[in-house]
Sequence to fold (111 residues):
Amino acid sequence: MRDNQPRHRQLAKERAKAERKRDSRREKSSALLVCEGKCTEPFYLQGLLQHLGINAASAEIVEGQSKSNALAVVNRARQRFTQVPRDRVFVLIDGEQADMARALKLCLTPV
Fold:
């Protein structure tokens, strides 16, 4: 430390050096992506994550059992969320299914 600095500046510099640096990184959010199919949908989702620049480690893709109904996909997402909680959950299902209204209602109920 230079001797010609005022004492309060010397003390401020010493305190700043002594303090630990705070964590400057923000936490990454995690997502659960549950899709209906197991052939093409997981590849689409991986491509989307890559295109958006989202780290694949922060997102889990759960593939379905080929063609299943919308309620089964939502129930699988809810079950997986209770096992491993995530910040966000996305369910990807075909919009042409008959039980879509019930599946949407189930999505809106808390786990």
Q: What stands out?
A: Residues 70 and 100 are 6 Å apart (CA to CA).
